[in-house]
Write a structure and sequence with these properties.
By secondary structure, the chain is an all-alpha fold. It is 80% helix and 0% strand. It contains one helix and no strands. The model has no long low-confidence stretch (mean pLDDT 79).
Length: 45
Amino acid sequence: MSLLRKKQEMIQKKEKGKEIGAEEIKLNRVVKFSYRKGSPAPQKN
């Protein structure tokens, strides 16, 4: 029972990580696109 629960938690964490990664990729694309257009984009440190 506890092993199964641990497995499910790991899977959920992986899925959350994928979602976060996708959001970061989208943000990076937006930043790169605005740089290409020449408009001032907020800089990340």
